[in-house]
Fold this sequence. Notes:
With 129 residues, this protein is mainly alpha-helical. It has one domain. The protein has five helices and no strands. It has helices spanning 2-9, 11-15, 23-53, 62-94, 103-128. It is elongated, with a radius of gyration of 19 Å. The model has no long low-confidence stretch (mean pLDDT 87).
Amino acid sequence: MWQRIRNWFDPRELRSVGNTPDYRFSLANERTFLAWLRTGLALVAGGLAAAQFLPNLSLVHLREAIAVALLLLGGAVAIRAVDHWARIERAIRLGEELPASRFPAVLALVVGLGALLLVLAVLAGAING
């Protein structure tokens, strides 16, 4: 595990493995990393916005729970992005099959479930309000 984390911060270590790939593959991998990073930043911004601008909801501490969930999810996406970038870059350099990832499906399910729970909270507030 520590070796994988070290690869995030030491590009020389990553470049010492395998052969130099066509730069277009490395740039495509970097663009994908940046897209994931933007997703993580958007989730963090949503968490901050929820904490600052949502009114108190009918369920106690629901606003704070939404904010914390979005902030944690944004942080997880950012960390997963850099790990995925390093794993893909290593596989490209070694000419190996790209590692599969369940993370996009998990993220989609978490966001979808969160949206469903928010719809229920809004409906409960409308009925009780």
